[in-house]
Every structure is written in C-alpha cells, then in structure tokens.
Amino acid sequence: MGLDIKKIREDFPALHQLKDGKPIIYADSACMALKPQLVIDTLIQYYTEYTACAGRSPHAFSLKTTRLYDEARKDLARFINAKNPAEVVWTRNTTESLNLGSGCLKYDGSETIITTSESHNSNLVKWVRLKNLGRVNLEIIEMPLNGIFNIEELTRVVEKCEVGKIFASLNHTSNVTAAHIPVQEIAKIVHEREGILQLDGAQSFPHLPIDVQKLDVDLFGASMHKACGPTGMGFLYGRYKLLQEIEPLILGGETVSDVHYPDDITLLNPPAKFEAGLQNYAGTIATGAAVQYLTSIGMENIAAHERLLSRTMLTGLNDTFGDKILILGPEDPSIRTALAAIDLKGINPHEAAILMDDMKNIFLRSGFHCTHAYHHSLGLNEGTLRPSFYLYNTVEEVEIFIETLKEIFDLMT
Ligand SMILES: Cc1ncc(COP(=O)(O)O)c(C=O)c1O
User: Fold this and answer.
1) Which residue of 78, 115, 384, 409 has the smallest Cβ count within 10 Å?
2) Whole-prediction pTM
C-alpha cells in the first residue's frame, strides 16, 4: 500500500500556507527538506522547557538534555544499523563530515583519493586543493550523462594505487543524476586493496533505507536538514577502529580527559574527541525526532513513493518535450531518487525557476547545484533546472510542474 500523503502533508506546517491565495508546490527538498511539526516542537521544547548543557551540571534541565542527547545518538545509530552509537559523530553537515573523514589520511604523498566527476563540491574541492598542494594523488572517475557508475574504471584506478593508500570518497546518490552507485561491489574492490571507502550520503540518507554494515562502508556522512531534520546538524558514521585513528578537525573543551601544563593532553575516545565545545543540543535532540518521524513512515515506503514520483516525472517530461530538453541521469526511474536536473536547451534555467514561482508557486532550484565541474564538463554552462520531490509531494504536483514547464516553453520559444 502507498503512503497516505494527505496525512503526511498535515504533519508539515509549511505546506499549509498559501502564497497569493494559492497553495505552494515545494520541489526543492534536495536542497532543504521541510520540517514536520514533531521536529519543530522538539526544538521549541528544548528552548522553552529545559535549555541546558549535556553532561556537565547535576540539575534537572541538564540531566534531561543529557538523556535526550544520548538517546538521539542511539536513534541515529539504530536507523543506519551502526554496531555501536559511539560510531556516530555529530557534525554541522555533510561537508564537515566528509572533511572530518579525510582525517585518516597521513599526507605522505603516497596516498590516492578517488572520487567521481559529478561529485558535489563538498566531496571534491578539498581533494583538488590537497592535490594542488602536492599532499595527495587524485583520481577522478568520469561519470557519464546517464549517471551509471563505471566499475571497470574503478578497478583499473584501484589496481594502480599502492595497497593500503586508497581513500575512495564517493557520492552514494547524485544530486544531479539522481542515480545510486553500487556500493557493495565498490566496497569489495576498494577493500581488496586495503583502501577506505567514504560515502557522501547527503542525497541517499533522506531517501533510502541505509544499513552501513550491509553496505560495508568505512565512513558515511550526511546532513539532517535534507531529511526532515533541523539545520546545522549532520553526522559522520565511522567504523570504531577507524574513528580512533582519525585526527579531529577541531579540538577544545569536551575532547580531552585530562590536560597537564605545558604539553600533556589525553584525548577522549570517539565520538567525544571530535565534538569540541558546547554542542547543538536542540539540533541533536531534534535530529532524534526527525529519525523517529522517518522511522514511523518507513524508509522503504518513502523510497517506493519517490519511485512513483520519479516515474511520473520522467514519463511526463519525455512525452511532453522529447529531445527539446535533456534530463541528466538514468532513463530508468526505478534507479533514481525523485529529482531531475534538466537542461532546457536554450531557455535560461534561472528565468524558468523564477517563472515557476510566479506562475504556479512552484519552488525549485536552478544553477549548478554545487556540481560546477560536472556541468561545465557537459557544456551546461548556465546550469540546469532542478525539481526535487520528497515524501510530502503528490503525483498531481509533479504533473503541475510538467504542465507549467510546457507553458514556459510556449511563452519563451
Ligand atoms: C550530494 C551532496 N553532497 C553534499 C552536499 C552538501 O551538504 P551540506 O551543504 O549539508 O554540507 C549536498 C548538498 O546539497 C549534496 O547534494
């Protein structure tokens, strides 16, 4: 049975608003997902009822904060099937998580970072910078227009690298091609050469059931704001042994068990050694609420609903526009999330996005979506138009998007 979308929409107050007297169609969830009332209430409760630090003071507010803070980590660990809550490190977002994960590198010049050409800037810019500084080698696997990962190319690249000196940081699900990579197959190839596999889970974590043990990944980073959670919250999952080796990005209060003047510091075990200073308690506890919310709907159900939206969008776009547009990513809607980066072939994507809002209150994104290099490599120098749908979107909304795009084409060509 499909999701009860009418009921789900009741949970999202942002969808109850009208703009110019008409409902809005929110199609920008790949950038920022809307928040259910449960998450909003959890944030407000922290600030109104028990604002305090976790793990410091002995009073009731602090004890409650400590309990809920610890429970959120357990909820997230369970949600991604981590072996142990201590394998979950809180961060601000995916970008910070991926940067933190790379702290396992030794920078002795012999290591190779492997990524793909459609990587988001948060999984590319730092690697290019490190290569330019001469600290690592960098291999970029070309991602074709259809978004299908080239496993033979990975095998070839991995075989060239020194054993034990490989750090593959790959995009689990693309924010432009919408495609997933075959993680288990990739993990096998990387691990056979004693490499480390880090996944950018920004676009998979909100949309698919994630089981880090089954995927056999070493590191996995994601953001909560794309998964119905608060802004300013993300996490890095890491195998415990690997987390022990990773160098923290920031050090300070709460990361040490003891300090003796002038140079004796004892770092705490993970995850504490990575979580310096006073934390985002409200955001972390609301992260727990977001995880509970998604669990109550069921990630399999969300994925199935997105496949329906994806099929509706791809079929509708192909039937209406044929080769007047170019849709990045696989033709098969069942192997995509419900987003599409579309080249409008001559129509400026920014103008189209503004018209979408003006004409039908459709909120979506245009531009490079932080994948400048990939867009440039495809000659898409003005970017693309990107609708991205989620659990609260209806098939009718997808159809209105296609009809409106047709109106824009009629207007502008
Ligand atoms: C595939 C992908 N990776 C990484 C990110 C970066 O996420 P954040 O800005 O939350 O760090 C995004 C965000 O759009 C993304 O889509």
Assistant:
1) 78
2) 0.97
